Amino acid sequence: MLTNVMRSIWPLFLGVLFISLGNGLQGTLSSWRADYEGFSVITTGLVMSGYFLGAFASSLISPSQINKTGQIRTYAAYASIASTAILIQLLFIEPPVWFVSRFLSGFCVAGIMIIVEGWLNSISSNENRGQIFSIHMMVVWGGLAMGQGLFVVDDPKGVSLFLLASILLSISLIPILLTEIKAPESELQEYLGFKALWKASPSGVATIGISGLASAGFFGVGTIYAIKSGLSVSETALFMTLFIGFGALSQWPLGWLSDRIDRRKVILLCCSIVIGLCIILALFDFSKTTFLILNGLIGATTLPLYSLGVAQTNDRLKLSQMVSASGTIIFVYSVFAALGPFTMSYFLELFDSNGFLLYLSIVHLVIALTVFVMMFITEDVVESDQADFQVMAQTPSLVAMEVIAEEALESQIDLET
Question: Is the whole model's pTM more than 0.85, yes or no?
Fold first, then answer.
């Protein structure tokens, strides 16, 4: 029963919530404070790219580290390092130091999510794994959105918010250390390289990678866009909250729609809406309330593209390939995500606040053109062969691939019987 499982794993979700709160606060605070401390926009973009480089490195190193030292000890070490990395930013206000701090944060938070999702996978069953993973995603997205609200708790020019972010990451240790964590069993999976993945689903791979430029760019320097648009500290926090919150909420209806029609049409719809909203915001002046809502709608149509790209890719993979494909997806997404904050900051430097809108328009135009062309080259899969859409965080997940593969297998068995 799901209820019985939830009674035993709620401390884990509580730890994830504190991690997401602290991580969400730190990302927004670091970007805003870098601008306040006089870092150039491009320098800020480079600093914030460190987080995504760290997440990529963690995807390669953390699995073997977890096997060596165990999940609990690795989690404790990563949470401690991430908490300390935030405090380092207070002691040394220098771009190279902040880059290292963001790298460590990305490495540790990504490693923690590997531990958490591996643990969830090991204690869940085929009947409840999808539900548990959905709850996990709700906690992650909810924590990131609420973390933006903490930005107004105190003046970001001081030290309190850095201390708060550090405290939240440290508190996440408490429920985890009081929970017995089992190491998940691993199975050998078929390897799937980039060429094979691209051949299987060019539209999906393009959407996964290129959308990383937009989402990582937003998470990296979205606050700079808010500042250049004349928003106050509280309004900047609301801007970030709405962008992320709308992006989280829209995944379910867009996912439902993509399960019923060609997913590529949903991707094209999202890209068209983003481009249209960017043009409207660039051409007309709006009240701050309307400005915030329109940007929230951009978040609602750009942040789900990663999940849509993964679903589009999985539709064209064998069941045995879905889990193994996650490694290649990690590589594709991470390469583009690491470039996102830097490339978006370059546009902000050249075109001021309109650079944010121009950048998003170009990125989504490239996605749309790629997907549109591929619609004439590759055929759509029939609805019965589609894998169920799963809401995902902005980082590839092994447990998500297993959930999708198992649900696809169950659907196939039901059809055969």
Answer: yes
